[in-house]
Amino acid sequence: MSVAHLVVTLFAAVWVGFSAFSIFIRAKWVVEPLSEYGVPRSWWPWLGTAKAAGAVGLVVGLFVPLLGVAAGVGLILYFTGAVITVLRARSYAHVPFPLLYLAPVAAALALGPGI
């Protein structure tokens, strides 16, 4: 495992974990856009849980690479779905936000040992 992979993976995990925490505490700057995009409130805990699980999976993946790859792929699918949701809501100025989470996850996968 390279130092770059370790640093990028830990950064991605903390960053995605912060995103999950923001949903759990219902941070205004997170939940207001979710409402505007039409994401039902009943989904919010599940979305936060998916992000939290992905963040934990990235860290565990440092020791069990297959889990890290699975978590990374899951998070890429999650944030791709977020981009699509933002585009469907025609909130084009918000497209960079899910990309800011997707990019470090993709970088962690690219730097990883693979399977």
Which helices and strands appear, and what pairs or packs with what?
Elements: H1 3-24, H2 28-37, H3 44-60, H4 65-88, H5 96-111
Helix pairs in contact: 1-3, 1-5, 3-4, 4-5
Question: Can I get a quick summary?
Answer:
The chain has 115 residues and is an all-alpha fold. It contains 5 helices and no strands.
Q: What does this entry look like structurally?
A:
This protein is mainly alpha-helical and 115 residues long. The chain has one domain (3-111). Helices cover 77% and strands 0% of the residues. It has helices spanning 3-24, 28-37, 44-60, 65-88, 96-111. Helix 1 (3-24) runs antiparallel to helix 3. The longest helix is centred in the middle third of the chain and has 24 residues, at 65-88. The model has no long low-confidence stretch (mean pLDDT 92).
